[in-house]
Amino acid sequence: MASIKEIRTHIKSVEQTLKITNAMYLISSSNLRKARKQLTDVEPYFRKIEVTISDILHHSPEISHVFFDKRPGVQPADRKIGYIVITGDKGLAGAYNHNILKLAEQKMSQSAHTSLFVVGQVGRSYFQEHGIPIDVEFLYTAQDPNMARARDMAELMLDLYLEEQLDEVYIIFTRMVNTFQMEPTIHKLLPLDPDVFPEYEKNRDSYNRDVAYVPSVKAVMDRLVPGYVKGDIFGALVESYCSEQNSRMTAMKSSSDNARAMLQSLNLSYNRARQAAITQEITEVVGGAQAAF
Amino acid sequence: MAETSTFHLEIITPERQFYIGPAEALVLPAVDGQMGIYPGHEPVVTAIEPGELRYKADGKWEPAAVGAGFAEIKPDYVILLVGFAEHPEEIDRKRAEAARQRAEERLRQKQSIHEYYHSKAALARAMARLKTRR
Predict the structure, then answer these.
(1) Interface test with B, best of A46, A48, A159 (most B CBs within 10 A)
(2) N or C: lower Cβ tally within 10 Å for chain A?
(3) Does the pLDDT value for residue B1 go beyond 50?
(4) Which residues contact B11 (CB under 8 A, 6 or more apart)?
(5) Domain ranges in chain A?
(6) Residue range B13-66, pLDDT digits in tens
(7) Is the domain A21-251 a CATH 3.40.1380.10 member?
(8) How many other C-beta atoms are found inside a 10 Å radius of the C-beta of residue A75?
(9) ipTM, two decimals
(10) Angle, vertex CA B4, rays to CA B31 and CA A47, nearest 5
């Protein structure tokens, strides 16, 4: 049996850990509340923009625009593919970071020319440790997603795509299905592909004619597509942030519970050890007294 | 005049759903000038510049400042997806004025093409707010 002193130090260290995990639980639950509100605010915009683009695309199949160019001339082996990977800035969030990095590595192993754009400190240090080159200028944090950051990221991606430094751009993020289920997801950002847009509400109106573009297809698409990419990135950032806080909250809750259970059993063995020591002392005193007589 | 006197109008921004409901008419700042829409308009997709928007609901014209975005127009509904949308009373005139000055100041400096576009966009947003607030 461990000595009383040993058990006491163990109890102290568990108590310290419990304090930290409990504080992190409280912080992430309050962050989650904020993130959830943002998610519910942004969701209608995000969904609407997808439905609208899908609707526009399905009503005007003959659009030829640079953002819809799949570049069939580039061989599949030579395609330069960019991945935006959204991870957390901190660990201690259960399997959140692990899942997203696993998906990213799996996707990257499928093609030869990949560029990585990583959001979040955990992903950045993971790829650096594993000797996988990432874009070092792409420094964005996963905390508090906002529109300006999404805009900067979208501009960079559109530039790289237009300069033909990238032929395809994907974003890998965590989708929050519900409170208990979070799913690492990959989403194609560029080029826009009418096939990846599910025809949400097929013929949601009775106007089955082609739509007109004012003043021209190019002018509209030049503004619409950057807006779409920006909205898409923003939505992904918000979903990821929300998922991160949620998984951290769950992880910290279970570790706090574990720490409490551990403290209980440690307290029990501490009391037992103490009692044993007292009993032994009494026995010794009694034994000594008996020997004296 | 079309037989329906209203159409369904949705103005949605990333922050909130600004307006969802019936409208009798709408004037929006398109790329090449203002564009008026009544019920029964032909299907059109157009881009929106930062500027002043007006919609007529319950016989009253309501102004609003909007940011860049696009609109999907169908005979019986209009969906506007814009960067921001604000009622005149929500606009802080002083803040918008300061933003305009800041943007103008920045435009005078030498800057990269991206910074130039950002400053231009900031200026357009400030002007849109000021125009609506008056």
Answers:
(1) A48
(2) C
(3) no
(4) B17, B18, B19, B20, B53, B55, B64, B66, B80, B82, B85
(5) 21-251
(6) 887 889 999 999 999 998 888 999 999 888 888 888 899 999 998 888 999 999
(7) yes
(8) 7
(9) 0.72
(10) 55
